[in-house]
Amino acid sequence: MKSHLRFVIRFTLAMVALFAFGDMIPSAAGATFRWDTISLTFPGGVPTINTGGSDYALAADLTTIQISGHGTFGGGVPPTGGGTWATSGPSGTASGTFTVTGLVRFNAAPGSLPPGFVDNIGGPGTTRSGLAILTVKYSDGSRGTLLVSCHQPVGSPTGVFEGITATKGFVAFHERVPPVPGIDANRTQFHVVP
Q1: Given pLDDT bands bounded at 50, 70 and 90, which one contains residue 8?
Q2: What is the DSSP code (8-state) at residue 155?
Q3: What is the reported pTM?
């Protein structure tokens, strides 16, 4: 009985070490990643991912910010990218472009696309779920952050959301607008760049 108990304890500790230190989540160390607000369409019934989608987030007064863009980060080089923005609501209506100025952090998460998706941005097996926090400069001179979060359909933890949130000056667009089936908006994707 004692040896069985020791085996169970050792096995449990080995499993804890494997899950805690094993490569269960793709590492961001040394890799270059691409982020995109994506367009998800279904030509001929086939789910197809392309660049050019738009994501929305809401401020406390229900002013919306619309973000469309892409860029890269990691791999030991400064982040790149940007896109377009537009606000509409009680906090003001304006639009312009934005440029990524820095990467605060990126954490990859488990998850993948199901079989049958056509990915016109990256090669098979290059997608990642995760969370990136970027600093940005808007074309009107204001600065802020862009939080890009990707929840892939297979294996992503429920705490990982799909979409964006942002800040612009003193306004926090802290409520993401979730994706809705049949509407081509509010989806993101990360890819490992070869």
Answers
A1: very low
A2: T
A3: 0.83
Yes or no: say if 5 and 155 are a contact pair by the CB < 8 Å rule.
Answer: no
CA gap 9, 157 in Å, rounded: 28
The rounded mean pLDDT for the chain is: 87
Instruction: Please say whether the beta carbons of 152 and 64 come within 8 A.
Output: no
Given this model, what pLDDT does residue 194 score? 82
Exposure b/e, 102-124, CB count within 10 A at least 16 = b: ebeebebbbbbbeeebebebbee
d(CA 183, CA 92): 25
Place of tokens 């998460």: 109
pLDDT at residue number 16: 35
CA distance 109 to 170: 30
Q: Which residues have CB under 8 Å from 160's CB, separation 6+? A: 109, 111, 129, 130, 131, 149, 150, 151
Measured distance CA(62)–CA(133) in Å, rounded: 22
- Chain position carrying tokens 């954490």: 107
Give the CA angle between residues 61, 65, 43 to the nearest 5°: 130
The yes-or-no verdict on residue 133 having pLDDT over 70 is: yes
Question: How far, CA to CA in Å, does 147 sit from each of 41, 51, 59?
Answer: 24, 18, 14
